[in-house]
Design a protein that fits this description.
The chain is of the alpha/beta class. The chain contains 18 helices and 14 strands.
């Protein structure tokens, strides 16, 4: 049986690089000094379409595409009509499921009501706004450029023009963020007309501006205990507002879950279009050349943009399955683990990190306190 295929489409451009970001993104000045977005992205859509044709020639599936995700970077810097051209090409080559989910990430400052209407018009039906925080001094530490008021406008416009699924992405644990600041952000997010919330603990990635600030002692990362308290606060408030937890860092109203991300967590197949994009097909992982210029050069020379690949071993596939499935409420089937692994989990069962009720029904499902130590529990299973 062939698997349905999802697509991730990478838009590698940003007006400004955020201090915490280590994603594969570039400002116009980094790519070509003195240029603007339109100049550096000229012809990029045609390259994505070209890579989509390569995917069609490589992939054997006959099933229509079920989910597409435009990520970045800042995909909303591109013209909606151009994004629509990529979608039309993929639809012509693969077909779309009747209930296809097409998501775009958005910076609240880069959209108007008209642009959102145009995005909806070309077939994008789910939008995820990078809110991060509602507190100006936290946004400043993160180097975020948007005005918090614009999140209210953008989410309202999105619902008005027909987006049924609207998400807000939050980050907690930034230097200088108090519990009160985080509560302010949660309350502001819950006041928005949204159907989904993601809340991620800030990770200071080496090589970023924020990492350099931490190293110089200019800012201090909050203690782990406070970060845990923020997660617990978020989960409680989200739950009371009708958002159900469905993955470690994600909550949704009924029917509001991100199906594209669920496909990742369930080990489905996907193809990543664009520089640095990763793909997964039948246990094989491969990834494209990272820099937009190298990506362009490869495709213009009629060469594949794929830089390298790896065939996952059975052991690697099992490790990935455990790491991903434990993040979901249903967790793991006990029968899928060895008796040795199960024995190592007994202390977490008696400690209340693993649900006794689910254990008795043959599953390993994390409780709220277990979610706080998910990585440690995964290590125990995979020892």
């Amino acid at each position: 049986m062939t698997m349905p295929l999802s697509f991730y489409i990478h838009i590698p451009y940003c007006v400004k690089r955020c201090g915490y970001c280590d994603f594969n993104t570039y400002t116009p000045g980094e790519l070509k000094p003195g240029s603007d977005i339109a100049q550096v992205s000229n012809g990029y859509i045609d390259l994505l379409i070209q890579e989509g044709k390569i995917a069609r020639s490589e992939v054997k599936t006959t099933k229509p595409i079920e989910t597409i995700f435009f990520g970045g970077g800042t995909p909303t810097l591109m013209e909606p009509a151009d994004l629509g051209r990529v979608l039309k090409s993929l639809e012509a080559d693969f077909g779309f499921a009747s209930n296809i989910e097409i998501t775009i990430e958005a910076n609240p400052d880069t959209v108007s009501r008209g642009k959102l209407a145009d995005l909806r018009e070309v077939g994008i039906n789910r939008i995820s706004f990078g809110m991060q925080s509602a507190v100006p001094h936290v946004l400043a530490v993160l180097d975020r450029t948007h005005n918090p008021e614009n999140v209210i406008k953008a989410t309202t416009w999105a619902r008005e023009v027909g987006f049924e699924q609207v998400s807000a992405d939050l980050i907690y644990g930034a230097p200088g963020e108090s519990l009160k600041d985080w509560e302010t952000t949660i309350d502001a997010a819950l006041a928005l007309p949204i159907t989904h919330i993601s809340a991620y603990a800030l990770i200071v990635e080496s090589g970023t501006k924020l990492a350099a600030q931490v190293k110089r002692g200019e800012v201090t990362i909050p203690e782990d205990d406070q970060t845990a308290d923020k997660y617990l606060m978020a989960d409680e408030k989200f739950r009371k507002a009708g958002f159900n937890w469905y993955e470690l860092s994600n909550w949704a109203k009924p029917e509001g879950e991100c199906r594209h991300n669920i496909a990742y967590w369930e080990g489905a197949d996907w193809w990543g279009l664009g520089p640095g994009a990763h793909s997964h097909l039948n246990g094989k992982r491969f990834w494209n050349v990272k820099h937009p210029t190298a990506y362009r050069e490869r495709l213009e020379a009629k060469q594949s943009p794929i830089m390298d690949s790896e065939q996952l071993t059975l052991e690697e596939m099992e490790s990935e399955r455990v790491m991903l499935e434990i993040r979901l409420p249903r967790g793991l089937e006990k029968s899928s683990l060895t008796s040795t692994s199960l024995a190592r989990l007994e202390s977490y069962l008696t400690g209340g990190q693993i649900s006794q009720e689910q254990w008795d029904q043959g599953r390993i499902s994390l409780t709220i306190s277990g979610r706080l130590m998910a990585d440690r529990i995964v290590r125990e299973i995979l020892l």
